Amino acid sequence: MENHKKMAASPPTNTNSREKILMLSSIASVSVAFILVVIKAISVRYSGSNAVLASLADSGLDLVASLITLFSVRYAQAPPDEDHRYGHGKAEALAGMFQAGLVAISCILIGTSSIGRLFSPVEIRPEGGAIWVMAISIVLTTALISFQTWALRQTGSIATKGDRAHYLSDLLSNAVALIGIFLAIKFKILFADAIAGLFITIWLLIGAWHIAAEAIDHLLDKEAPEEVREKIREIILSIDKVRGMHDLRTRVSGKWLHVQLHLELPPELTLQEAHPIVVEAEARIREAYPDTDTIIHADPDEDGEPHGHPDFGLH
Predict the structure, then answer these.
(1) Which residues lie below 8 Å from residue 308, measured CB to CB, with a gap of 6+?
(2) What is the pLDDT of residues 154-165, one digit of tens each?
(3) Nearest-CA neighbor of 52 among 99, 113, 140?
(4) In what order do the strands lie in the sheet with 244-253?
(5) CA 110: distance to chain centroid?
(6) Maximum CA pair distance of the chain?
(7) Smallest Cα–Cα separation from 26: which of 37, 38, 15, 34?
(8) DSSP per residue over 92-149, as a string?
């Protein structure tokens, strides 16, 4: 799983286009997960492969997670309202916590089954088409990741980025499962199938941890990445008549970047003269990060009286 190292590329100027791309990406994710669940269930029925069973459980969770992503993306894009003045972006983080819980439960079940198969190996029946099923899974997952990569470049969506990272891990787990099945069928190394199941279990646990950690960061209003904060400083300090800034605070909520800062201006400026500078600062930040809600307080750069709670004036 990927943590969000930086804000993604700028989304399209047309908001409707951005929403359509996100919906198409989410629908594609749900569709691929559904197809994989069906074909893997059929394969498990006839082959008895534990690796395919593990991968089936993973695809089942993928389907649930993709559905949650679909609805959370839709809800998170809803504009702020009277009850949610900061928007609905944290819906994505709540969905991530739920996904992490589902993955953890699945890991317990898959791990228990795989350990049992290590001590009591079961022959894999080739007539179930286990190898072909895993090969198809790899092809479909690769196609989906390619589409999600394009969608991510167009939208910068955090939800799409997380979903793409999840399917990247699936791609690796499917490849490992395919190797385990091949060794079990071709060379009768029966424990290889169980080991593949255990590997997938460990990989899923790592993924669940990253999902939960990222969701917690969003829910606890962790600062935006330092490169984003530095970019905001560069933007502000490049504006004419701005002498400095302080108390920069940021947080990410879904697609929204929330920014608060104090602008240091010459003390002789009138309110009417200072206001256009503040408006320009907000516009320039929004130009760099379109989905940004900005609150700027103008301060005189000399002899300005401290204000606000001291615990929040870190830098």
Answers:
(1) 247
(2) 876 666 776 777
(3) 113
(4) 244-253, 256-265, 292-300
(5) 24
(6) 85
(7) 34
(8) HHHHHHHHHHHHHHHHHHHHHHHHHHHHS-----GGG-HHHHHHHHHHHHHHHHHHHH
For residue 233, with 0-12 CB atoms within 10 Å meaning exposed, 13-18 middle and 19 or more buried, which class applies?
A: middle
Residue ranges of alpha helices (H) inside the chain are: 15-47, 50-76, 91-119, 130-155, 158-186, 191-219, 226-237, 271-288
What pLDDT is recorded for position 303?
66
In this prediction, residues 137-146 reach a mean pLDDT of 90
Specify the higher pLDDT residue, 81 or 276. 276
Strand duo 256-265 + 292-300: pairing: parallel
In tens, the pLDDT along 225-251 reads: 999 999 999 999 999 999 999 999 999
Mean of the per-residue pLDDT values for the chain?
Answer: 79
Q: Which residue has the higher pLDDT, 108 or 217?
A: 217
C-alpha span between 300 and 66 (Å, rounded):
50
Q: What is the pTM of this model?
A: 0.68
257 - beta bridge partners? 252, 292
DSSP 187: S
Q: At 297, is the secondary structure helix, strand, or coil? A: strand
pLDDT in tens, 15-44: 557 778 878 888 998 999 899 889 888 887
**CA atoms of 212 and 214, how far apart (whole Å):** 5
